[in-house]
Amino acid sequence: MLRKLLGKVEDGRFCRAMAGLQAGWEFEVRSRKFAKTGVEIDGFVKYSGKKYSVHIRPGKAFCNCEDFMRRQVLCKHVAFVAMAELALYAAERSAHRQVQEVLPT
Ligand SMILES: [Zn+2]
Predict the structure, then answer these.
(1) What distance in angstroms lies between residue 94's CA and the mean position of ligand 1's atoms?
(2) E strand spans, the chain
(3) What percent of the chain has pLDDT over 90?
(4) Residue 96 Cα, ligand 1 centroid: separation in angstroms?
(5) Over the stretch 40-58, which tens digit does the pLDDT of each residue have?
(6) pLDDT tier for residue 105 given thresholds of 50, 70 and 90
(7) Residue 102 lies in a domain
């Protein structure tokens, strides 16, 4: 589902998200829930004093940055969260662990 989402991100934004991964952008997860249809993720993308709120649901995504709000396109923050999550799942799989659900308190 996250790979499918990434497939819908335009090339330039996809590359900027990759650069963010490389530059050490942070994803602070607030909630991660594995539903039957896919993962539901809420959290913040943080870098150089900026902070954006990102929400991903099966079949849709939201970010409060200007790019997303004005153009209604999947932005680099949504792409970054999808990449960071996929990287985490891959790392946990190779360590034979399960990714934990994080539920808001
Ligand atoms: Zn954004």
Answers:
(1) 30
(2) 26-35, 38-47, 50-57, 60-63
(3) 98
(4) 32
(5) 999 999 999 999 999 999 9
(6) confident
(7) no
pLDDT in tens, 3-44: 999 999 999 999 999 999 999 999 999 999 999 999 999 999
Residues with CB under 5 A from ligand 1 (ion): 63, 65, 68, 75, 77
Number of domains in the chain: 1
| Amino acid letter, 39 | V
Backbone torsions φ then ψ of 79, nearest 5 degrees = -60, -40
Distance from residue 11's CA to the centre of ligand 1 (Å): 15
Any idea what the CATH number is for the domain that residue 79 is in?
3.30.160
What range defines the domain where residue 65 resides? 2-94
Half-sphere exposure (CA, 13 Å, Cβ side) for 75? 17
- CA of 78 from ligand 1 middle (Å) equals 6
